[in-house]
Q: What sequence folds into this?
């Protein structure tokens, strides 16, 4: 589903009538996203920025044919929002809320998998096909159509990297924020086949961080894949403190699990290049793709 | 977040698991007379793995040795953590040592159960062995996986493992744990005894886990980073109490990367910070809290602000920054502000007018150059 996204994909926004939801509906429309519906529990609001608002996803999908959803609801409401979207046949759901309990994410992820749908999140700024559409709040200044596919655990570090690359003329083919939580929907390794298949993509930028095993899983998948697309990686958190989450719930090391050294070693063994600084990554991408 | 062993064991006890008889000592004066015969094990209560290898677990044959080891450990640091407490336990003797753990497996979206017939291994080794089962996050499924892993044990031992497996599964799910590891797991005639407790809790679940929240509050000195998050609603982690560079940053990944890049240049960052500019909403309180924490550390020589504003209004942020600095006079060191994004020019004008002493840069490498100059290092 992620690989098929374009400016024509009909999308809905759950939680569209809240302060933040409304602001982002306007920004996404301005960017070109085909937002066909809003969903809200409020009966008194019937439209947001010219988009019709429905009481639930089923009504919105029936009336508009939306296939993707962005849920702009608080952490406690995410599970219900995902259930509502799945019941309406939504195939891709992006949830931006931070701070979802991990056991809730486990339940959500199992439910989405059972339904055969795709979940991006939690704790993600969203995704984009630069120049076409975006679902979420990836900043416009960092988005620019180009040859690099982005996958990132961190919003801000990817904004910074994308912004610097864009300013030297290197843009992105597709950009997916997978979020910084340990349990999530789409993971780095899930995106690899899609990025390898994607004709627009000539290189992959992986923005990882310490904690968990997602970078290692990606490295295993890369080692097995027949890929000629270079992988440029940053792994933040070399100086992170053990035993404590560094902002992201997933950025937690204990013992030898999830360390920088482990990730760097596995990524490099699979043929990826791991850079010590944002500047180094930008320079390498510029040399190869500008 | 990883709990110290004595807190992990408090959760174990409340769930009906048996742990060795022991006492927690925070100062040598608190050391009670030890009843009965040893030997004893003295364990530094620091929230890190690998304590044993780092010298934080010491076997003592008599009470005098216990006393001297406790006194020594309480003066020491283990893997960067000052030892504030020791757990003194009577050693469990003559038992086999096993390894049992329940862990959330994010890739499989399941619970990973591991049972090994040797203690002392690292969790990574454990998950690399065949003695693991993936199961649904349901009490019956976890208990069944534990029973199956123990199926080649003698009958009495099977029953003991099944019993602790059920209790541990109930605890793991009810308390929303990310890891519950017992290493070593001992046996006696009555069943299993948890020799250690490595428990990782989910700070995002504390709203519905009041017992764990209370545990953290009670031991605020051990978990300062978690307590800050509980009270102030954002992340600030002190990575080096002797650090020279105080960081005011937003975004976890970018903040971590900045720490790494500063360290690679020879700098000593004090802290990680994800202040979440999107949540400031016109209130300088969070910035003031960060400035208070930074100024409470003696070696800080410069404050570096790094904000990438995709959506945040930088001009509004600049106003808040000035307001927070004005109300935190304890910040006497130079401030370097690297800001980029939405309404940069307006923000620079605000800072130039209100705080001309602040070096304002749009490019990160130029801001890092200012930091180097303040610290008296040649620009790398």
A:
């Amino acid at each position: 589903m992620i690989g098929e996204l374009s400016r024509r994909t009909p999308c809905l926004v759950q939680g569209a009538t809240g302060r933040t939801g409304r602001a982002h509906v306007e920004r996404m429309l301005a960017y070109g996203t085909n937002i066909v519906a809003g969903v809200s529990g409020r009966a008194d609001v019937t439209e947001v920025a010219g988009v019709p608002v429905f009481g639930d996803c089923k009504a919105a999908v029936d009336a508009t044919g939306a296939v993707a959803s962005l849920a702009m609801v608080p952490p406690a409401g995410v599970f219900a929002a995902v259930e509502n979207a799945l019941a309406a046949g939504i195939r891709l759901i992006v949830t931006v809320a931070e701070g979802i309990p991990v056991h809730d994410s486990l339940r959500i992820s199992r439910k989405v998998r059972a339904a055969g749908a795709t979940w991006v999140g939690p704790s993600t700024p969203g995704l984009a096909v630069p120049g076409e559409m975006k679902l979420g709040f990836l900043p416009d200044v960092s988005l620019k159509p180009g040859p690099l596919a982005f996958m990132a655990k961190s919003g801000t570090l990817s904004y910074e990297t994308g912004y610097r690359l864009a300013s030297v003329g290197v843009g992105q083919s597709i950009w997916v924020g997978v979020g910084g939580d340990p349990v999530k929907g789409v993971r780095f390794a899930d995106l690899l086949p899609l990025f390898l298949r994607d004709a627009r993509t000539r290189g992959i930028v992986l923005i990882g961080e310490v904690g968990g095993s997602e970078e290692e899983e990606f490295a295993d998948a890369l080692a097995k894949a027949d890929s000629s697309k270079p992988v440029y990686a940053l792994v933040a958190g070399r100086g992170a403190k053990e035993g404590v989450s560094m902002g992201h719930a997933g950025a937690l090391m204990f013992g030898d699990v999830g360390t920088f050294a482990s990730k760097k070693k596995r990524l490099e063994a699979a043929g990826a290049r791991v850079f010590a600084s944002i500047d180094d990554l930008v320079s390498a991408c510029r040399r190869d793709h500008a | 977040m990883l709990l110290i062993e004595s807190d992990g064991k408090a959760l174990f006890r409340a769930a009906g698991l048996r742990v060795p008889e022991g006492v927690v000592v925070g100062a040598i004066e608190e050391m009670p007379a030890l009843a009965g015969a040893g030997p004893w094990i003295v364990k530094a209560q620091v929230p890190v793995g690998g304590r044993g290898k780092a010298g934080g677990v010491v076997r003592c044959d008599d009470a005098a040795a216990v006393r001297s080891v406790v006194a020594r450990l309480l003066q020491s640091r283990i893997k960067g953590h000052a030892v504030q407490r020791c757990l003194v336990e009577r050693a469990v003797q003559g038992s086999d040592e096993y390894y049992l753990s329940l862990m959330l497996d994010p890739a499989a979206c399941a619970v990973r159960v591991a049972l090994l017939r040797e203690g002392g291994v690292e969790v990574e080794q454990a998950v690399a062995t065949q003695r693991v089962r993936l199961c649904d996050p349901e009490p019956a499924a976890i208990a069944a996986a534990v029973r199956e892993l123990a199926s080649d044990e003698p009958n009495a031992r099977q029953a003991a493992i099944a019993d602790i497996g059920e209790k541990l599964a109930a605890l793991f799910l009810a308390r929303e744990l990310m890891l519950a590891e017992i290493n070593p797991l001992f046996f006696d005639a009555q069943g299993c005894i948890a020799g250690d407790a490595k428990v990782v809790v989910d700070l995002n679940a504390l709203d519905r886990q009041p017992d764990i929240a209370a545990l953290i509050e009670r031991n605020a000195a051990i978990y300062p980073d978690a307590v800050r998050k509980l009270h102030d609603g954002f992340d600030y982690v002190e990575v080096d109490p002797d650090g020279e560079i105080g960081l005011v940053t937003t975004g976890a990944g970018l903040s971590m990367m900045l720490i790494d890049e500063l360290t690679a240049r020879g700098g000593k960052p004090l802290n990680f910070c994800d202040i979440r500019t999107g949540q400031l909403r016109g209130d300088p309180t969070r910035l003031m809290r960060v400035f208070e924490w930074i100024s409470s550390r003696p070696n800080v020589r410069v404050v570096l602000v790094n904000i990438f504003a995709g959506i945040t209004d930088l001009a509004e942020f600049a106003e808040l920054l000035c307001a927070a600095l004005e109300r935190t006079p304890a910040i006497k060191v130079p401030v370097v502000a690297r800001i980029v994004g939405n309404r940069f020019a307006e923000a620079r004008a605000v800072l130039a007018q209100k705080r001309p002493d602040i070096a304002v840069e749009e490019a990160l490498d130029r801001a890092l150059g200012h930091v180097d100059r303040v610290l008296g290092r040649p620009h790398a």
